[in-house]
Amino acid sequence: MSTRLQIMGSRIRTARQFRRLTGEQLAEKIGIAVDSLRHIENGVRSPSFQLIERISDILDVSLDYLACLLYTSPSPRDS
Q1: Which helix (H) or strand (E) holds 52?
Q2: Per-residue pLDDT tens digits for 43-73
Q3: What pLDDT shows up at residue 60?
Q4: How would you classify residue 20: left for phi > 0, otherwise alpha for psi between -120 and 50, otherwise beta?
Q5: Sign of torsion, CA 43 31 50 65?
Q6: Interior CA angle at 65 toward 15 and 77, to 5°?
Q7: Contact, 36 vs 26, CB < 8 A?
Q8: pLDDT at 68
Q9: List of E strands, 1-79
Q10: What is the DSSP code string of the chain?
């Protein structure tokens, strides 16, 4: 498990909770199984770029933030 995947998963979970979405709700919105989302949030599975884009759009956070290129939260997205 890479540290970058763990950080990205943690950021997805935090943004999801900030938006008051359950794991089930986000999984449904992005079109994946709840278990797959759990694996992403736990840093076990690496999501595709297209999936990261969908997550970014739904949670209104930047791709840079989710991909660990930014170290502060830009939520809601200002860029």
Answers
A1: helix 49-59
A2: 999 999 999 999 999 999 999 888 877 555 5
A3: 95
A4: left
A5: negative
A6: 65
A7: no
A8: 77
A9: none
A10: --HHHHHHHHHHHHHHHHTT--HHHHHHHHT--HHHHHHHHTTSSPPPHHHHHHHHHHHT--HHHHTTS-SS--PSP--
